[in-house]
Amino acid sequence: MTKELMWRTVLVEPGRFIREQVPVPVPAPGEVLVRVTHVGVCGSDLAALHGKHPYIQCPIVLGHECSGVIAGGDDKTLPVGTRVAVNPTLPCFACDACQHERYNMCATRRCIGAQADGAHAEYVVVPAGMALPIPDSMSLRDAALIEPMAVAYHGLKRVGDLSGRRVMVVGAGPIGISAVQSAQVLGAQSVWVADLDPRRLQLACNLGAQGTIDVSKESLGDGMARMNAGAAPADVLVDCVGGKGAVLDQLVLKAPRGADVLVVGVLAYGYDMPNLPDFVEHELTLYGTTMYVNQDYREVIDHIAAGRLRTDGLVTHTYSLDNIAEAFAEIEAGRDFFFKVVLEAS
Ligand SMILES: [Zn+2]
Ligand SMILES: [Zn+2]
Fold first, then answer.
1. Within 10 A of 47 (CB to CB), how many other CB atoms are there?
2. 232 CA to centre of ligand 1 in angstroms
3. Cys staple from 32: which of 71, 73, 112, 156, with CB 3.0 to 4.6 Å?
4. Residues 144/85, Cβ–Cβ less than 8 Å
5. What distance in Å separates the CA atoms of residue 69 and residue 39, rounded to the nearest whole number?
6. Which ligand is nearest to the CA of 144?
7. Between β-strands 190-195 and 166-170, what pairing exists: parallel, antiparallel or unpaired?
8. Residue 249 CB neighbour total at 10 angstroms
9. What is the distance in A from the centroid of ligand 1 to the CA of 43?
10. What is the number of H-type helices and E-type strands within the chain?
């Protein structure tokens, strides 16, 4: 039996969480109740904490990188006890994109933990189709990493067939390292990664990056020249930084003619790109990407289960879901090397 009351943590205003008891939500037909076991902390949660996320308004229950166990609902394929990873998208299910399971293209989609209450709670209700079963061999903690991995995987798939291509990823955060691994899984011949934190670069190497560019020690251009010496130039360039577009502008400047440039990082509005003429003149192709689709989740689940996408070393800290304010305060204080932080139900 499911409990009638549950605890959840609400960001009531920027900087202030409260923990409160509310009724356990009741799934409508076609929905499932998930007992949350693990929730990843994302950079966007930290932006929301400071009221700086463009699409998240308080009060909100954050948490969109979530895994757990089915605890209720009428879906015959998801009996109580099924272990699942949750795709946090709440699509309309009616539009043309939704009819083709391209939920990330749904114009009215929302996302739990952003425009609807998320997983910083004991239970969350989601559409049955958004709860994707994981194999017995996969831990529920790893299942909470599928969301950020699927972001990178979807982006790299947008570029198309990567077989034999050389890929350069800028930004070795959780998405960047997932981009490195995704490129390899999708057939890239070699993948290099650039960052200014040597600990992140080391982690990227442990998970298969073939070369690194430490931009605290050499320029991106010099590093790319080193990567390209005596080989076909890297012509898939991935920006996992975003921000005001400085990295994208550098990539446009340094990209070989005909290259593909993919932006996975979140770009701020109002930036300018001094090197845009090179984009035109060198016939570059620019790819945008947003979230993922269920097929990405299924493939990422398979790749993790088969050991082709690895999670070792990604989670540096775990905290209790009961103490989210403290977890966020520790992350912000930054007294340690925080990479992926996972909140765990007690
Ligand atoms: Zn996220
Ligand atoms: Zn739709």
1. 15
2. 34
3. 73
4. yes
5. 13
6. 1
7. parallel
8. 19
9. 7
10. 11, 17
β-pairing, 166-170 with 236-239?
Answer: parallel
288 C-alpha vs ligand 2 centroid, how far in Å? Answer: 19
Where do runs of H (alpha helix) occur along 271-346?
A: 276-281, 294-305, 324-333
Task: State how far the Cα of 218 lies from the Cα of 227, in Å rounded to an integer.
Answer: 13
Burial class (CB in 10 A: 0-12, 13-18, 19+), 205: middle
Q: How far is the CA of 252 from the centre of ligand 2 (A)?
A: 33
Amino acid identity for residue 46 in this structure: L
Q: Which helix (H) or strand (E) holds 21?
A: strand 16-23
Token pair 């939920």 in the structure block, residue: 103
Distance CA 276, CA 247 (A): 13
Q: Output the CA 44–ligand 1 centroid distance in Å.
A: 6
pLDDT digit string, tens, across residues 44-101: 999 999 998 888 999 999 999 999 999 999 999 999 999 999 999 999 999 999 999 9
Tokens 């691994």, located at residue: 181
Looking at all shown ligands, the one closest to residue 97's CA atom is 2
Å from CA of 284 to ligand 2 middle: 31
Residue 257 has pLDDT above 90, yes or no: yes
For 65, phi then psi, to 5°, come to -105, 85
Residue 90, token pair as written in the block: 């709440």
CA 236 vs CA 75, 188, 264, 315: distances in Å: 42, 9, 13, 28
pLDDT in tens, 151-202: 999 999 999 999 999 999 999 999 999 999 999 999 999 999 999 999 999 9
